[in-house]
Design a protein that fits this description.
mainly alpha, about 65% helix, about 0% strand
């Protein structure tokens, strides 16, 4: 990304940016919980539904949500203390291992925390600490959660995509990012574009090329950024997805028939469009 595009917007003061980075680290720690637990909560709800229909005893009757039980080591059950839960620092102090059983702790935990902190600081630096900046923080955090959930499970939960869509429409009532009419058309067009691609691909090949969550995510991006940004988002996500897909097949021996989640590429394209979409479109049109 060219440097002039990075600093195209007047930067916010250093203090709000620094505060956003620190708060982003804390949010990143919570996002790790969301990424791990939300798919399991969905599975438990599905299990409960089946059990009710067949009159079998309900499984998973213990409380399990984003708040309880406390985080624990999956290997030995050691409860994570407050000192062991400090973003990034605790992982480094523990040497990436459980304090009790010394089982390895995935490096992805501090990566998510650092990514969330860095992107939070970038958002406030670019958009300021007003309603546009705070709204973009929520946008960014939800995209991060969806990226890793989709990478793990090939699922984009309605619990994230639909609130993201409604929040985008709500913020654009006062044209925070785009006029409301553009946001509504963007939501409808975003859903219908991938819905049409899905059914065309299925009619031609007899296979499902993507999930319904992708439709909803693109609809949400359209609700935030307007219909004008949809071509850029689709182009960016398709290019990145194609490059990564080919690389996985060639270098990681990823089978051609193994599904590759599209949500992470949509999320990355949406974030880029939020901060630099207008500049990218102007440069593209200026080239012609």
């Amino acid at each position: 990304m060219p440097l002039d595009m990075l600093v195209a917007a007047p930067p916010a003061s250093v203090l709000p940016t620094f505060a956003a980075a620190l708060f982003g680290l804390l949010i990143g720690s919570f996002l790790n919980v969301v990424i791990h637990r939300l798919p399991r909560m969905m599975q438990r709800e599905s299990d409960n539904y089946v059990a009710q229909e067949s009159d079998r005893p309900l499984p998973h009757t213990d409380r399990y949500n984003l708040m309880v039980p406390r985080s624990a080591c999956p290997h030995c059950g050691h409860r994570i203390t407050a000192l062991e839960n400090i973003p990034v620092a605790s992982w480094l102090a523990l040497g990436g291992k459980c304090a009790a059983c010394k089982a390895p702790i995935s490096v992805r935990y501090p990566i998510v925390e650092l990514l969330t902190g860095a992107l939070s600081a970038l958002v406030i630096w670019m958009l300021g600490s007003g309603i546009a900046g705070f709204g973009a923080l929520a946008f960014t955090w939800m995209l991060i959660a969806m990226t890793f959930i989709d990478a793990d499970t090939q699922l984009l939960p309605d619990d994230l995509t639909l609130p993201l869509l409604w929040l985008g429409l709500l913020l654009n009532v006062n044209a925070t990012y785009v006029p409301l009419a553009d946001a509504v058309i963007g939501a409808v067009a975003g859903y219908l574009v991938l819905w049409s691609v899905y059914w065309l691909f299925k009619l031609v090949t007899g296979k499902e090329g993507m999930g319904y969550g992708d439709f909803k995510l693109l609809a949400a991006l359209g609700a935030w950024l307007g219909w004008q940004m949809l071509p850029l988002i689709i182009l960016l996500s398709s290019l990145v997805g194609a490059v990564v897909g080919v690389a996985l097949i060639v270098f990681a021996r990823h089978g051609r028939n193994n599904p590759i989640p599209f949500g992470p590429y949509l999320a990355a394209a949406g974030f880029i469009a939020l901060l630099w979409g207008e500049q990218l479109v102007e440069r593209y049109l200026g080239a012609f």
